[in-house]
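Chain A, query sequence.
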Amino acid sequence: MGLKSKLLLPILLTALMLIWPAANTLAKGTGYVFVSSEDDDVVTVLHGGSLKKVKDIHTAERPRGMGFSPDHKRLYVACGDGNSVDAINIAQLKVVDRLFVGEDPETFDISPDGRVLYISNEDTSTFTAYNVETKQALAYVGVGPEPEGVLVTPDGKTVYVTSEVASMVHVIDTKRLTIKDNIIVGTRPRRLALTPDGKELWVTNEIGGTVSIIDTATHKIIDQIIFEPEGFRSEDITPVGIVMTKDGSTAFVAMGGANHVAVIDVPDREVEDYVLVGKRPWNVALTADEKTLYVANGLSDDMSVIDVEDLDVTRSVPVARTPYAVVIDD
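Chain A, predicted structure.
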């Protein structure tokens, strides 16, 4: 090695040492795709690139709603018949904790600081606030029958909860853990999404076959989306899962019995297209780059993969029985 190279080597090593922590900080997640399946009591882990199965993680009975801790070190899974939320360690891909959060938890959301789970307990008509650090319930709030969808606002001050039987969205103050307002929406509301500016709350109504759009400042319904895919009876059009792009331009809605995903122009509030997927698509998830949409199909035991630019299904991936939700660690 020449003298010049010897002199440059320490400088290069120092530069690499400075760059390495920054690269680690900016690193993405594992890229794994996780699918919960109600009838096999597993969360299937798929490789984000090949979509080959990495592992089936066995959970308590009937895993349904899922969500990551803010640092993505844990994946929480609501297990309805196990009366628990199971915590999966992402690095180890195994259940490392089991939080007993009341009867029949279906879905939940997590406070921005990661300390509190806000849970819908379907059978007991209860909304539970649960501290994951102390493993204690902070409050049980009575809500309408069969609560399901739960959504926390980005500032952590408000939680929205749907009641399927009451056809209602409850607005809950997270500081007092009391109901601030009740909003009547369409028949059997399921899931929720906020526009990026926080001004509109979109609510899917399964039996109503619509999306209700709520002004978050006034809690009034300002519009609705009506779904009419060709060739389906009205009772087969059962929208459930919803996801919105980061810029708020497009929403994707799983149409349940209509076996399609609806593509909605959000500013214009118009359905642009319907994409045929598997049987009874229940929930949807977008990759971070928003190039791919994953769809959990509850009655065909698979996951559809949609190219968002072309709005084409590129493949169908078998998972376990009765997939419910899909989330992505990216």
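DSSP finds one helix and 28 strands in the chain. The chain has a mean pLDDT of 93.
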